[in-house]
Amino acid sequence: MSFRSLFQDVREAMDHVHLSGCLKEKTLENLEKYVVKDPRVPLLLSRMREVAKVFLATNSDYSYTDAIMSYLFDLGGEDKVSARSGGVTSAVPRAPGSDAVTPQRPWRSYFDLIVVDTRKPLFFAEGTVLRQVNTDTGNLRMGTYTGPLQHCAVYSGGERARA
């Protein structure tokens, strides 16, 4: 067996797992097992936003992205509110062993730009139609989005030049 044929077999298997949806399905069924939370991530992103633009560009759809990011940014608290509500949810430690706290907030607020369904590498080449995502339903809004890109909004598709 050559490295080329091994690569092709692994590539085909990975493509099948991604296209069938079973990888994401199994991940969502057991987030604690497959996704590692780090309570320092919100602070890191906040500090990054103080000096630069922070963006998230993923090939995943909004529903999956929202589930993963909501899990990652839900760092505790009994009085939490849904991340989609836009409200402050609770207070969480800034770093392990630290007594300082920072208010927990919706994951989208940590990014200047969020683009799902990017279809990389197409996003970095000719791109696709840019549409806005209705974050309450996960559905795409009708038509091509041509307005200014908004903080906390989620977009689908598009191209690097627009971002």
TrEMBL record:
Belongs to the 5'(3')-deoxyribonucleotidase family. This is 5NTC nucleotidase. Pfam families: 5_nucleotid (PF05761). One of its GO terms (molecular function) is metal ion binding. The keyword Magnesium applies. InterPro entries: HAD-like_sf (IPR036412), HAD-SF_hydro_IG_5-nucl (IPR008380), HAD_sf (IPR023214). The gene is Nt5c2_1. Keywords: Hydrolase, Magnesium, Metal-binding.
